[in-house]
Amino acid sequence: MDIKHIQTEIDAWYLYSILAQHEEDPIVANVFVQMSEIEKSHAVAFAEKMNVNFESVASPSWRAKTLHFIGKVFGYDYVLGALMETEKTLADAVIRQKGKSKIEVTGNEDSHVKILRSILENETRVSGTQLARFEKRHRSVGGNAIRAAVLGGNDGLVSNFSLVMGIAGATVGQAGVLLAGLAGLLAGALSMALGEWISVKSSQELYENQMQLEMDELETNPEGERKELKLIYMAKGIPEDQAKEIVDELMKDKNLAHQVLVKEELGINAEELKGSAMEAAISSFVLFGIGAVIPVLPFMFTEGMKAIVLSTIFSAIGLFLIGAAITLFTGKNVWFSGFRQVFFGLAAAAITFGIGKLIGVSMAG
Fold first, then answer.
1. Which end of the chain is more exposed for a tag (fewer CB within 10 A), N or C?
2. Are residues 304 and 346 in the same domain?
3. How many helices (H) and strands (E) does the chain have?
């Protein structure tokens, strides 16, 4: 155990308290308060074990403060999602490490996530609607959105940086590099946007078709669906008589029964189907374009070796920032993650530059 573990708990304490302050639903806010108190107790316990003065280290890290800023700008659902992603990532890392060391996995490795789930499920005042809303928020917003933004920018930067360096190697950084870079930006961004649109749209159409089939089955064979619902509840450990009562009540409302069947039998969250394929496509286009424009910028104002050097510097900075941003949901060391991203990005660009150089020499010969 080292100081990093204490900082992780302090950050979680800080972020859960922030979530509690900005949660409109008082019952869910109380859950976040309980989680914050649990995380603080962990931090205090770790500090005592390491003979560290807790008050001297009880400050949130830059990562936690950045997530707070993201919450202010984009909404605190993003913070919840990123926090849960971090908890899961850390738990997975512990499990992997235990596997390598041949240490028994006890099931407590993801205790932070389980504690939150337990509080939510055992809090008698938390309704099913509130629980479902929490589930949707932490699964489909937050971490996934931040990760998509970071990876979208990374794809644009690495791919266009490699393309620009390849052309620059073949032409010694002449003006044609700018045209190639802009073409690569537009082609890549359009490809990403179309791919995202097709992915979202096809998923929606597939799920909508499955949901309609379930409704048809409910209308043509209600008794069969009644039995399915009863078996679903019995599989959850509910006694048969009680399961039958629940199903009898559900079947009084066909739409409600359909919602339960869609969620429990098909595993589909109907709320997630409301996302716009066009919005996803536009977001993908913009994020890819932001990353892709970085290596092209110097060629807009200069050319030759000066433009190549400036493009490399700009891209290296961009790669480092992307690597640092990834640590928002991995919890890894920012310097390690940043320089790792720079290394791989520069390596890819160096390979394409070398290939371009060989092609340029061959064509000149």
1. C
2. yes
3. 15, 0
CATH code, domain with 105: 1.20.1260
pLDDT at 66: 85
How many Cα atoms within 13 Å fall on the side-chain side of residue 304?
A: 2
Q: Tell me the one-letter amino acid at 363.
A: M
The label of the residue with tokens 């932001």 reads 290
- The backbone region for 144, taken as left when phi is positive above 0, alpha when psi lies in -120 to 50, beta otherwise, is alpha
The model carries a pTM of 0.62
Query: Cα–Cα distance between 317 and 295 in angstroms, integer?
Result: 10
For the chain (365 residues), the mean pLDDT of every run of 10, in chain order, is: 73 88 81 84 82 81 85 76 66 63 56 56 50 48 58 89 90 79 92 84 74 72 75 75 77 73 64 66 87 93 88 94 79 83 92 85 51
- 239 part of a folded domain: no
Answer yes or no: is 58 within a domain.
yes
> What's the pLDDT at 139?
45
- pLDDT tens, position by position, 9-53: 888 888 889 988 888 778 778 878 888 888 888 888 888 888 888
Q: Alpha-carbon distance 239 to 117, whole Å?
A: 23
Helix (H, G, I), strand (E, B) or coil at 124: coil
- How is residue 326 written in tokens? 């990834």
37 vs 43: CA distance, rounded Å:
10
DSSP character for 30? Answer: H
CB contact at 8 A, 361 and 171 = no
Q: What is the pLDDT of residue 160?
A: 93
Fill in the DSSP letter of residue 270. Answer: G
- Last residue in a domain, options 140, 157, 187: 140
> For residue 59, how many other CB atoms are within 10 A of its CB?
12
Please state the domain count of the chain: 2
Classify residue 300 by its DSSP letter. G
Distance CA 156, CA 31 (A): 40
Yes or no: say if 147 and 319 are a contact pair by the CB < 8 Å rule. Answer: no
The angle, 0 to 180 degrees and rounded to 10, between the axes of the packed helices 304-330 and 142-171 is 160
Residue 213 zone, left/alpha/beta (φ > 0; ψ -120 to 50; rest): alpha
